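Quick one: structure for this chain?
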Amino acid sequence: MSSIPRVHAIGAAVLCVLLGAVAIPAFARSAGSRATETASIKPAPVKDAPTPVIATPSTPPALSAVPVAERGDTSTGASGRLRIHLLTAGSAPSGVYAVPGGVAGHPFAFIGVIPFAAKRGEYIDDYHLGFWPAELHAVQSEAYENPAGFVEVTAENADTPISDHFTLGDFVTHDGAPFPKYIVLREELLDKVELVLSDLEMHGVATEHVRVLSGFRTPSYNFALGDASGRARESRHQYGDAVDMIVDADGDGRMDDLNHDGRVDAGDVHVIEAAVDRVELAHPELAGGLGLYREMGPSGPFAHIDVRGTRARWGTADRPMYASRVSSYSPASSSHCQAEGASAVLCQGFRHTR
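Got it. Here's what it folds into:
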């Protein structure tokens, strides 16, 4: 796969094929079934779609086709801040396909996703991934089935904006391996985090810079973290829908003083907690986990946010995390951990649920 060009300027043929065979995902701006909506706009099966034509840098840009991508403005998510759309795994060759002129005045790109079936044992190409839980044993729910595929991240495309605050390179595993690397990524995670950041901004928190401490983690890297309980082996970081992050608008490498009390401590991650609760209340289709952590290393306290599909809460901050404001919420809880549905079992070892 290393011979495939990593970044392409999309010409007329590519835009016509991609925009004709692939519908841009609509992100519901009101409560409803995200899964049902997404299913209704799935790309046509590859066998029914035209053979993708890959543009070369010499292909004239199809500026007249760009408004097709803009109609409805659903490509940028509920947050309005998404800058990529992941194509159905295997529907186009791996690569980043930049849309000339962008979408709604912002850079935008399609990304070709490599099918999970391309993985051979613990590897894809020469990159060590390990095994996902569903490759080894039965899993507790569909949320823990194998991911659909992988995004190839290279030295050339690592700086590709995927949302207003993040690039592809922000989500690679910190395993010391050289490029190319491969990640699993979900647009829903980006959309949720951008909504949280928008909420923080509306409440007077500066968010010019957000640092990802941990995005995607390969199963082999995740297992090497040494969790004796085994529950971290099913960490959402392996599924591309979790991020550990700090808000670092002042650029000093540490969590900012988000509650403006003159110090950086657990109280600052509770500001993020409140924002996540407000976002999930407004967008129940983005329900997921929230973990709050006291100072752990030079970055200070941080927050874990995911979109696993069911609500889960845990933390090592100063006070127990509280129940959802959604009236239908009925958690199973243990000390500082609360979860519902398939995630409830994780509260038996809440320090290891990330």
